[in-house]
Model the fold of this input.
Amino acid sequence: MYILLIAFFISPALGMSIDNDLCPPFTPPGPGFDLNKYLGVWYEIARTDMLFESGLDCVNATYTLRDDKNITVLNQGKDLETKKIQFVQGVGRLTQQANLLEVKLSPLYPEAPYWIVDTDFSTYSLVYSCGKIGPVYYREVYILSRYREMDETLREKLIQKSVDLGIQRENIYLTKQLECIRT
Done:
């Protein structure tokens, strides 16, 4: 019940989309999806705000293959006020669908779907998550790049794809990548 209250009252204030609509189906990747090409460092260009990322910029995610064939997920960002690096590390469990992981970042958070909607592996990635906590559904989106900056036209295209998936445009936060410590 406590998690439900947090999700219901805090998440909208942080920009996470909460509603009663069902999640769209997680579609299979196009031909040629290769998890090994996806591994490595990705810089966050935009996102819906998440509790564990609230107040952070300079966010990046590193995905590495583990011996058990699952994925280590390391998300880190810099609090621009305190200048401190914060991180959360979890595990992405592979599913039968190549572009869909089940990610658990903390004992406090339930396992969540991590759907790689679109990527070219070398420049950009659009990641979407939608799930249910109690009676409400949440939606999250991450626009990632292999570089700290992204072409504005490409960024806007990925934001529009996010809106098409049910994310409210005003809930998409552009992540600052200036004043960042090189990682």
Notes: The chain has four helices and ten strands. The first helix runs from residue 2 to 9. The radius of gyration is 15 Å.
